[in-house]
Amino acid sequence: MILTSLDQSLELGRKLAELARPGDVIALSGPLGAGKTSIARGLLAALGLEGEAPSPSFAIVQPYEPPEVRFPVLHVDLYRLDAPEEAEELGLDDARYDSLLIVEWPERLGEAAWHDALWLSLDVAPDGARVLTAKVPAAWKDRWFPT
């Protein structure tokens, strides 16, 4: 999939909001400025968040709860983690029972940590467009929309 504008990234997030549910993990991978947070913002807006969602870069985990959004969501940014062991303190495994996890920089914990995640990887093309590839796990096969 090719995303040529911010609006298309936000729209992808809105479409994901129609498919996502508590217990899911959406892993957003790609270099700085690739559009990971834009996709997350579109998703959060479609779940009811008013205003722009802040990037969780410094907080690491930005929680959202009803009535702010339709169901609990944790927007996670693992960029600042120095070692995978640091993530244990975040309680992400427990949060998955009732929350959607949107995880930026998931590769900081390795792909094995997110074996059942919808893994979206973004690359920036020379013309500035974003090239998105998806690894769709079994739990998403019936929900994933054609690209």
From TrEMBL:
<keyword id="KW-0547">Nucleotide-binding</keyword>
<keyword id="KW-0067">ATP-binding</keyword>
<comment type="similarity">
    <text>Belongs to the TsaE family.</text>
</comment>
<dbReference type="GO" id="GO:0046872">
    <property type="term" value="F:metal ion binding"/>
</dbReference>
<keyword id="KW-0460">Magnesium</keyword>
<dbReference type="GO" id="GO:0002949">
    <property type="term" value="P:tRNA threonylcarbamoyladenosine modification"/>
</dbReference>
<dbReference type="Pfam" id="PF02367">
    <property type="entry name" value="TsaE"/>
</dbReference>
<keyword id="KW-0963">Cytoplasm</keyword>
<dbReference type="GO" id="GO:0005737">
    <property type="term" value="C:cytoplasm"/>
</dbReference>
<keyword id="KW-0819">tRNA processing</keyword>
<dbReference type="InterPro" id="IPR027417">
    <property type="entry name" value="P-loop_NTPase"/>
</dbReference>
<protein>
    <recommendedName>
        <fullName>tRNA threonylcarbamoyladenosine biosynthesis protein TsaE</fullName>
    </recommendedName>
</protein>
<keyword id="KW-0479">Metal-binding</keyword>
<dbReference type="GO" id="GO:0005524">
    <property type="term" value="F:ATP binding"/>
</dbReference>
<dbReference type="InterPro" id="IPR003442">
    <property type="entry name" value="T6A_TsaE"/>
</dbReference>
